[in-house]
Amino acid sequence: MAITSVSSREFNQDISRAKKASQQGPVIITDRGRPAHVLMTMEEYQRLTRPVGNLVDRLAMPGLSDVEFEPDKVSIGIREAEFS
């Protein structure tokens, strides 16, 4: 995926070039040198914003098996209740 960066002036002067570049990856539009907007295809936007599903579906997502996660063990002791 190629990421393209154009100034807002360049974007206004050649919108079709930015639209073509968005087929290859996101186009970052800058204002005064700072990223201000992102142009992407509707398909990419829908892919990024669609609901993933329930927790089981999220845990079954590709690539998560490569994540190493070993939480610390917690020891919970029992103590008497205080009624004061």
TrEMBL record:
Residues 1-25 have a biased composition (Polar residues). Pfam families: PhdYeFM_antitox. It comes from the Bacteria. InterPro entries: Antitoxin_Phd/YefM, YefM-like_sf. Residues 1-26 are annotated as: Disordered. Belongs to the phD/YefM antitoxin family. Antitoxin component of a type II toxin-antitoxin (TA) system. This is Antitoxin. It comes from Roseibium algae.
